[in-house]
C-alpha cells in the first residue's frame, strides 16, 4: 500500500476509514453475538438487504415492520423471524421493548426516512438508512440530532463506499495514477415504470437526481476528495405518457471543485441510462461502469509522462449481488460492536442533500 | 431505407442531404476534370486534407499557401504542385489569376479563418474552411456575406457529417430505434502540448470548447435534429504548469432542447479525454466512441417495449484515415461541379458559433 499518511487521513475524513483497506480478518466474529436488525419497509431494496444479511457472519434479521401482514409473515418465515417480532407502522415504537433488535434498516420511500429514523432512534435502536438520506437538508439535520440525542449510531447506506473496486479506484486517484483530476463525467438513470412511488413528489421528494443522480454526485465527491462549490443545472419533464407527478424527468448539471476540476452529470427517469463515471486526469483517464449491485467494471489508461508507455487496466468485481449488502451490513455491525462511527454517517448524507438542494436551486426547482 | 419523407426533409435541413444516404455512384466522375484545391496553411490538419485528396477521384491539390517556402516546396513536390503555384500569405491574393485553383481549404489557426476565407472569396475561389468556422459570430456572418457577394460556395469541414457510421446513427434515431431522445452525454478533449497556438487566445480565439468541444455541441444538434435553447456552463483554468494563455482549460456545460431533451458535455485541454457521445432514449441507448479520423465505434441497446427482447448493435467503421477527408472533399467537389449547396454550409458553422458564444457567456467568459 503506497498511500501516504496524509492521504490516508483525508480518506478517513471522506468516510473511507483505515479498516476499509485492511485485509486483517475480524477474528472470532462468528463466536460473537450477531447484531439483530429490524427491517422497516419490505420493498425491493429490503430484499437486497435481507439477502445480504443472510450471508453475513455479523448480522441477522430479527424483526420486520410492514403494512402488509401476509407479506411480512412469509418473509419472516424465510428469515426465521418470530411472528411476535412483526410490527405495523402504527405499533412499531414497541420495537423499544424487543431486546433482539439492536438496529433498524430504513427501506421506506424517501419522504418517510426522517420520521422512521427519528422514531427508531427514540426507541433506542441504531439506524442504517437508505439513500437519499431524506428529502431536505432540515430533515437530514433533524435525523442526525435525533440519533445523537438518543446516543445511537446513524449510517447512510452508501454501499459503494464498501465495494472493493470503488475503493481501489479512489486509491488509484489518491496515489496520483491519473495525475491531477481535471474533469469528471457521470450519468445514472433508468426508465421508470408507471405508478412507482418514486415518480411522485409526495413520496420521492424529488425525481431521478434524488434517487439515482445522487450516485453520480456522491462519486464526484469520493473521487476528488473535495466538496463542489458551484453548480449549474437544467431540468425538463417532457412527460410523454403521464408518468410524472411533480418530479423532474431529466436533469443535467455541472459542478466546480476547489482544485479547478469540473464535473458534468446527467440523470433521468425517462430513458435507459446505465450508470458510469469517467475521470479525466493530467496523466490519463479511468472509468467505472455500473453503480449497480454487481458487475462493476474498471478500465483505465494512463502514463507517467507524455512519452512513457501506457498502463492499461481492465478489471471487474466478480462478486454477485447481494455481496455489496453483506459488506455494508458487516461494516455497520462492527461499528456497533466496537462503538465506532460508520464510514458513511448521517453527515455524509447531509452533504449530498445540501448539494442536491443547490443543484435543484440552479435548475429552478424548490425542494419541500 | 425506412426514413420518412418528412424526416428526410428534416435531415436535409440539418445538413444531411438526400445524397448523403444515396448509394448510387456518381458516374463518369473519373472522366471529369478534377476540382483543383489551394491549401492555405500547412499544419497537421492540412496533411490530413492533402492525403485525403490524394485518394480522391474528384479532387486534386494544385496550389499551396505557406509562410515556410522550404516546407511548401517539399510538400509541393510530394503532391505534384508546380513551384509557381506556391504562395506566401502576402501574395496569396494572386491566386485569382491561377486557373488551376477552383477552391481553397483554410487550414489556419482559428483567428485567421475569417480573413483568409474572405480574401479567397474575393479572389473568386470556393472555400472549404476548417472548424471552428471562426472565433466570433460577427466573423462567421462576414464570411457568409463575403462568399455570397463573390458568388462562391462556402463549406465548413464538419467531416463527420460525411462519415457512414455517424449517418447510420442519425438515421437510427430519426427512425425511432431508441425512442424519444431524453438525454445526451458527450465529452471530447485532450492534453495539450506546451506552446501550441491553440492554447493562446490570440490564435485559438477560445480554448477546448472552440477547438474540440464543438464536436460534442455539433453532435447534440445532429443527433436531436434540434437547436439548443438554454445553456449553463462552468469553466476553470487551474493551469498547473503555465500552458494556458487566456483560454479555458476545462469546461462543463448543459443544454436544453425544445423537445425536452437535455445534454451534459465536457471538454478539456488539461487531460486525456477520448471523445464519445451517449444518447439515452425512451426505448434504449446508443453510443459512438471517437470523434477522430478513424475507429468510430457504435454500440446500442434498445427494445420496442419494456418486455421485448433487446436489439444490440456493435459496429465499427473500418475505414482508415484519411478516408473521412476523401469523403468530405468529394462532397464539396460535387457541390462545386453540380452547383449545389454543401450539406455543411457557412450557416452550419454560424449556428455552432452562436451556441459557443452562449456557452461561454454562461461560463462568464466573453469572446473576442
TrEMBL record, chains A, B:
Keywords: Oxidoreductase. InterPro entries: Gfo/Idh/MocA-like_OxRdtase_N, Gfo/Idh/MocA_domain, GFO_IDH_MocA-like_dom, Glc-Fru_OxRdtase_bac, NAD(P)-bd_dom_sf. Signal peptide: none annotated. Residues 36-158 form the Gfo/Idh/MocA-like oxidoreductase N-terminal domain. The keyword Oxidoreductase applies. Residues 170-287 form the GFO/IDH/MocA-like oxidoreductase domain. GO terms for molecular function: nucleotide binding; oxidoreductase activity. It comes from the Bacteria. The keyword Oxidoreductase applies. Pfam families: GFO_IDH_MocA (PF01408), GFO_IDH_MocA_C3 (PF22725). PANTHER family: OXIDOREDUCTASES, TRANS-1,2-DIHYDROBENZENE-1,2-DIOL DEHYDROGENASE. Belongs to the Gfo/Idh/MocA family. This is Putative dehydrogenase. It comes from Edaphobacter modestus.
